[in-house]
Amino acid sequence: MKLKTIIGISLIVIGVFMMVYTGFKYVTTDKVVDLGSVKIEKEKDHFVQWSPFVGIVLVIGGVIIIIRDKKVG
Q: 42 CB contacts (<8 Å, ≥6 apart)?
């Protein structure tokens, strides 16, 4: 397989993934109090979200790369 075809397929797969899953969540732990053996920690949720249109653009870009590669090569 040519490198451009692999890049195009990768963009399509990532784009479909980004359309299906529009974000993810991760948790961090912050230290609130630390007095010797007494420790109080707080868990904080963080959300990372993106628009499904980003996935659509990646899919279209991947298809264009594959089509242009087929015409040139």
A: 29, 30, 32
